[in-house]
Write a structure and sequence with these properties.
The chain is an alpha/beta fold. It contains 13 helices and ten strands. The longest helix has 17 residues. Bound molecules: the ligand O=C(O)C1=N[C@H](C(=O)O)C[C@H](O)C1. The ligand O=C(O)C1=N[C@H](C(=O)O)C[C@H](O)C1 binds next to loops. It comes from Muricoccus vinaceus.
Length: 312
């Protein structure tokens, strides 16, 4: 398969990548809200977008919806004059089906893929190395591995990860191993050209300070400017200012993950006027009344402090 990059991206992704929620209204993709969201976040100094991953409820989208989501995003980025890398979230436990998904999306305006470890079947380390190697061979664009054992049921260990990191088409990992020793060991041993981006929102500052290249954090939908600032300040050696900035928002992840994601984030964005409805698709359900009240109060507090970033 030929490489077919829409735009040249840094070979090793870094900085703040936003795993965009997918807005729905009355059961269908809410196109106006997709456009508004993309415009809104394209105006921020983020480094990339991820579509249809966990936060984007990718498992509930049909092929036509994913294609439309990708097209709308590309249109809005072009209209905004923003060359932002866009990776598509993929997951599955059948290598052949994933190869077909790669083929199906080969001409889409995306720059790469975020592919989760195969879930439910609990393959061996060798099975996962062969799985990702096959996908990397077949993909026309770079792949980031998504290691999230508490969702998939299987952990891609560092030996296997480093073997995969040697593949030129595997450019990084979204690390949600939930094992600090494993994450720090990976940061110590990762080769040049292979990025580690944390997907543990609450550990965003800690992981960056430990040498991570960036983060893919759903919480950054809120207070996005602060997430960007924390990354830049640390990169520029301004540790004290980075920590002070982080302290202003470090409780957000706990609030936004108090119930299954992305319902709390969607409630927030709806209250902030960025999306037309907080709708999620079953088996996800809307936030409880109690959490809705807590989020509403926090929306007001951040709005008053100017940290919300919700200026559509
Ligand atoms: O959408 C994602 O990708 C993210 N996944 C993590 C999860 O699975 O909970 C959290 C992260 O903030 C974004």
């Amino acid at each position: 398969m030929q490489a077919n990059h829409r735009s040249p991206i840094s070979p090793a992704p870094g900085g703040l990548w936003l795993p965009l929620i997918t807005p729905f209204r009355d059961g269908v993709l809410d196109e106006a809200s997709v456009r508004r969201l993309v415009r809104h976040y394209a105006a921020e100094a983020i480094d990339g977008l991820i579509l249809a991953a966990t936060t984007g409820e990718g498992l509930t989208l049909d092929k036509e919806e994913v294609e439309r989501l990708v097209a709308l995003t590309a249109e809005e980025l072009t209209a905004a004059g923003r060359r932002l890398p866009v990776f598509l979230g993929l997951s599955g436990s059948d290598t052949r089906k994933l190869m077909k998904a790669l083929e199906h999306s080969a001409a889409w305006p995306i720059d790469g893929y975020l592919i989760a470890c195969p879930y439910y079947t609990r393959p061996s380390q060798e099975g996962m190395v062969r799985h990702f190697s096959a996908l990397a061979e077949g993909a026309a664009r770079p792949i980031m591995i998504y290691n999230i054992p508490y969702r998939t049921g299987v952990n891609l260990g560092n030996t296997a990860m480093l073997e995969l990191a040697a593949h030129p088409n595997i450019v990084g990992v979204k690390d949600c191993s939930a094992d600090m020793a494993q994450s720090l060991d990976l940061l110590r041993r990762k080769p040049a050209g292979f990025s580690v981006l944390t997907g543990e929102d609450a550990l965003f500052h800690t992981m960056l300070a430990g040498g991570a290249d960036g983060g893919i954090t759903a919480s950054a939908h809120v207070g996005i400017g602060v997430f960007v600032a924390v990354h830049r300040l640390l990169r520029d050696g301004e540790a004290a200012r980075a920590l002070a900035a982080w302290h202003a928002i470090c409780d957000l992840p706990r609030l936004l993950f108090a119930e299954p994601s992305p319902a709390p984030i969607k409630h927030w964005l709806w209250r902030a006027g960025l999306i037309g409805s907080p709708e999620v698709r079953l088996p996800m359900v809307p936030v409880s009344d109690g959490l809705a009240d807590r989020i509403d109060q926090e929306v007001e507090r951040l709005r008053a402090s100017g940290l919300d970033g919700a200026r559509a």
